[in-house]
Design the sequence.
């Protein structure tokens, strides 16, 4: 049985360019370290956010996985 480790990334929509640019860069960084997307879902909640409409924020949660012990360090 293969064992996995997991990484959770919460991405809250701000500006389309900011979310796309920042999230894309983060996912490319994690992908280079061996992480792959396992699932994603929206997590609506009440709260304060500069991007929330009427106090309701909907960040997207991404769960990534990689085989345990598959750490790959990528030079910056």
Sequence:
């Amino acid at each position: 049985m293969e064992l996995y480790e997991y990484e959770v990334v919460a991405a809250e929509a701000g500006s389309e360019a900011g979310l796309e640019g920042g999230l894309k860069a983060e996912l490319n960084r994690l992908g280079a370290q061996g992480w792959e997307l396992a699932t994603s879902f929206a997590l609506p909640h009440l709260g304060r956010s500069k991007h929330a409409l009427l106090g309701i924020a909907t960040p997207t949660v991404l769960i990534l996985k990689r085989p345990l012990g598959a750490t790959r360090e990528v030079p910056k």
User: Anything to note?
Assistant: Residues 15 and 51 are 9 Å apart (CA to CA). The first strand starts at residue 4 and ends at 11. The chain has one domain: 4-67. The chain has one helix and five strands.
